[in-house]
TrEMBL record:
Pfam families: ABC_tran (PF00005). Residues 25-265 form the ABC transporter domain. The keyword Cytoplasm does not apply. GO terms for molecular function: ATP binding. It comes from Cryptosporangium minutisporangium. Gene3D superfamilies: P-loop containing nucleotide triphosphate hydrolases (3.40.50.300). It comes from the Bacteria. Keywords: ATP-binding, Nucleotide-binding. This is ATP-binding cassette domain-containing protein. CDD domains: ABC_Carb_Monos_I.
Amino acid sequence: MTQDGETTMSDSVPEPSATTSTAIIETDALGKRYGNIIALADVTTSVRPGQVTCVLGDNGAGKSTFIKILAGAHEHSDGRLTVDGVERHFASPREALALGIATVYQDLAVVPLMPVWRNFFLGSEPTKGWGPLRRMDVDFMRRTTKSELAAMGIDLRDVDQPIGTLSGGERQCVAIARAVYFGARVLILDEPTAALGVKQSGVVLRYIARARDRGLGVVFITHNPHHAYPVGDRFMLLRRGRSMGDFPKSEISLHELTARMAGGTELEALSHELAAELGSDSEVAKTLESEVKELRT
Ligand SMILES: Nc1ncnc2c1ncn2[C@@H]1O[C@H](COP(=O)(O)OP(=O)(O)OP(=O)(O)O)[C@@H](O)[C@H]1O
Ligand SMILES: [Mg+2]
């Protein structure tokens, strides 16, 4: 696909017909510069209640930069960011959180040796009693953690076990359930499946779908189109800090998404280069050539 083709497609996307609900977050030509480094440019997409917006891109594509702007950790330097139709410039994560935008970072900030329920309420512990008798309401925390996890379909044997003993996938799920409980309307997940095996990734994808079904707008960052496609409603592609388009699911197939992610043109150039270097019947060049062919079909 030519550069022109890509531009035309992304231009045709923001049709209201493709979506029914009003957006919670909208970005219009959003960008971020660090000095004269352009980390992000021209990102136009939306996050809607009950929908999953996937942000796809390779290492250094600008995915984290994008969500840091949504989460209030970095201020954008170009374009517009609106939440519920109001233009915003977040100066801190607190401001984003106050509007119901919660972020689960990949290096989940948990205290591994503390029980699951303690981590669930970390920083927002409910108390009971007054004055010198005031203390944490441990019973409430235990009960609530158990019931909230159950409501998300997470069946933990024991909420008293240290959170460090849970699998990576389970920990992601606890973080998702926690954000839902504390009233998030938008849930941002930075590569929640990156470090997980096939089965655990499946579990996390299921909870992403659950959060979506509960009406949250989910922003799902990943570099894996096979993780994004089954749960995504909208796909925004980043390459070297630039948006390569924003597509509702009806306008892009898994095959096309994969091809665009892989950067068909770049692969082709690499395959020619290798063929010239190693001879066109070398194994490596042949494999690559057939991969390029497959991407093109
Ligand atoms: N504070 C900063 N100062 C200067 N450049 C930065 C800063 N933060 C990010 N960048 C640059 O912006 C670009 C995008 O980085 P970003 O972390 O958003 O990518 P990413 O898509 O999240 O990558 P990864 O998949 O590796 O997490 C990179 O080239 C990076 O070097
Ligand atoms: Mg990142």
